Amino acid sequence: MRNAKGFTLIELVMVIVILGILSAIAIPKFVDLTGKAKVSAAKSGLGAIRSVVAIQYAKNATSGTASFPTAVTTSLFADERIPENKLNNSTSVGAVGSAPSGTATSTNGWWYISASGKVGAYSDRTEDTSAW
Hints:
This protein is mainly α. It has a domain at 33-121. It has helices at 9-30, 33-62; strands at 93-95, 110-113, 118-121. Strands 1-2-3 form a 3-stranded mixed beta sheet, covered by helices on one side. Strand 2 and strand 3 form a beta hairpin.
């Protein structure tokens, strides 16, 4: 009698089937991780810009005139860099009269209303940033 070692064809097929089932369950959970990371990074940048606007408002208020900055520029930031909007890879801030609604796009990364101090993000995706 021969002493055969190794796996039978049925054992190999079962392993392949089990791996296929596991990958069919796991892959959809990780498909949009890049998109979620970009949204999180954009929200972080938006928070930084809103903080700068609030700090500048507080500085203006303590000096006698409570007003928002007329524009968001690099001079307002400690490192003199406006955060990049990862949703459209832009760092520029465009002044607008009213908040864009829905999935507005622009060559600017961010929008800013100097009358109210509101700041928001533009997106080149189907991401609705108006609720941020």
